[in-house]
Design goal:
heterodimer; A: about 200 residues; mainly alpha; Rna Polymerase Sigma Factor, Chain: A; Arc Repressor Mutant, subunit A; 2 domains; 9 helices; B: about 240 residues; alpha+beta; Immunoglobulin-like; eight-stranded antiparallel sheet; 6 helices; about 35% helix; flat
Chain lengths: ~200, ~240
């Protein structure tokens, strides 16, 4: 269930409603958005940074930004805004601390980390979403999937991947393109015609 | 000659990943001009890449994170009566004066070029109380490139001046982006002549109330790039 889609349970406020209430200073809206998105934000930051303190900092930073800054939710989904910001800030932080993890530290570590049960119904939908995307990635040939993961979660450039794995740059480019095409196709069959959520 | 659907998909994926060669970018731009509905596919491929954010297992952060956010939220609202959610702009005069000096030094560096004709607008901007200046420095292969942007936040105008940028090929264009909350927001685009450019660029309405932390210039494969996919060639320095 996407909280932004109409026709869902009336008792669940949409992201947009919560965001408007947040801007009006309602603490309850902040709490609801936090419970909805904090595990996604923290999980993603942890995946990229591999450091719980830094992931906490990013999580705090993202929600403070949401409270204070002028995001226009009509420009796109709040979930997409939050996850894009989380990835971007996590990678910035990783670079600021003096570079990236070694490729091998990232390789094979994209699988789920330990986590406790989530309290909200919304979380179920996110977990389902996670599962669909993981399944879609699982259908992609290994080298293409790993290249996508290294770029997305590791912030690695194509040149870095090519150098480390001693393959031509064109090969890495091709892995990435074909991997993304296949991801799009898999998500299209899994999530409907437009493949978006 | 018609491109196969697989080929178009790969071009779109390459565009979203930022790894198109100039001739491929040109080809894609032509294809999109012929079939504007391909723009929808670009958005869907972007969304598919964005969904990778949901791959890591969600993890609940420690409760202290929520407490810290709530505290800051309440303090923020207490200090915002009557309610305003736009960060106050606090440009310090000393900073503006230092920026003015830097801008003038930069101006001398570009003497003999079009900046001379823009001097008056730059100086007029620097005389305003709500002016901001960003110095730009090249990165990587464009390390010799440099420049600056002066913004008049009251008149919502900016002047950009750059030098030593490499010539672009095909449909490539230089794009200026404002970094707001870690996100690059489109600011404007420009072309260079012999590696140089001096352009007056109106501040996009979306940036009127934004706190811009830095500026970035990228070489984009397609003139209409909605988000940066090309390499960064200039970044602002404090």
């Amino acid at each position: 269930m996407n909280p932004d889609e109409p026709g869902q349970k009336q008792t669940t406020p949409t992201d947009r409603q919560l965001f408007q209430d947040l801007k009006a200073g309602q603490t309850s809206a902040l709490n609801a958005l936090y419970e909805r998105y904090a595990p996604i934000v923290y999980g993603l930051a942890l995946q990229i940074l591999k450091d719980s303190q830094e992931a906490e900092d990013v999580t705090q930073d993202i929600f403070i930004s949401l409270c204070k800054d002028d995001h226009d939710p009509t420009r796109g989904s709040l979930g997409s805004y939050i996850t894009t910001l989380t990835r971007s800030r996590s990678i910035d932080k990783m670079r600021a601390r003096g570079g990236k993890l070694k490729l091998l530290e990232h390789w094979g570590q994209i699988m789920p980390l330990d986590t406790g049960p989530s309290s909200l119904m919304e979380q179920v939908s996110f977990e389902e979403r996670s599962e669909r995307v993981r399944e879609a990635l699982g259908q992609i040939p290994e080298n293409q999937r790993q290249a996508l993961e290294l770029v997305y979660f590791g912030g690695f450039s194509q040149v870095e991947i090519a150098q480390q794995y001693k393959v031509p740059l064109g090969t890495v480019k091709s892995w990435l393109r074909l991997g993304l095409v296949k991801l799009r196709q898999q998500l299209q069959s899994s999530l409907g015609n437009n493949g978006s959520i | 000659m018609t491109a196969s659907s697989e080929h178009i998909q790969e071009l779109i994926a390459g565009f979203v990943l930022g790894n198109l060669e100039p001739e491929e970018a040109e080809e894609l731009e032509q294809l999109i001009a012929q079939k504007p509905e391909l723009n929808n596919e670009v958005e869907h491929v972007k969304a598919s890449l964005g969904l990778m954010a949901y791959v890591p297992q969600p993890v609940s952060p420690p409760s202290r994170v929520q407490s810290a956010i709530l505290n800051e939220f309440q303090e923020f609202h207490a200090s915002q009566e009557p309610k305003t959610l736009t960060r106050p702009i606090s440009w310090r005069w000393s900073w503006v004066l230092a920026s003015a000096a830097a801008a003038l030094a930069f101006g001398f560096g570009l003497d003999n070029y079009r900046l001379r004709s823009q001097d008056e607008s730059v100086i007029a901007m620097l005389q305003q109380p709500n002016t901001r200046l960003f110095a730009l420095r090249g990165t990587g292969s464009t390390v010799r490139a440099s420049g600056g942007v002066v913004m008049d936040l009251d008149k919502q105008d900016a002047v950009l001046a750059v030098q030593n940028l490499p010539a672009l090929s095909g449909t490539q264009t230089y794009h200026l982006w404002a970094v707001v909350d870690g996100e690059k927001v489109a600011f404007g685009r420009f072309k260079t002549t012999e590696g140089k450019a001096v352009e007056k660029i109106p501040l996009p309405p979306g940036l009127y109330n934004s706190v811009i932390s830095s500026l970035v210039v990228t070489a984009e494969p397609i003139a209409e790039s909605p988000s940066p996919v090309g390499p960064e060639v200039l970044v602002s320095v404090l």
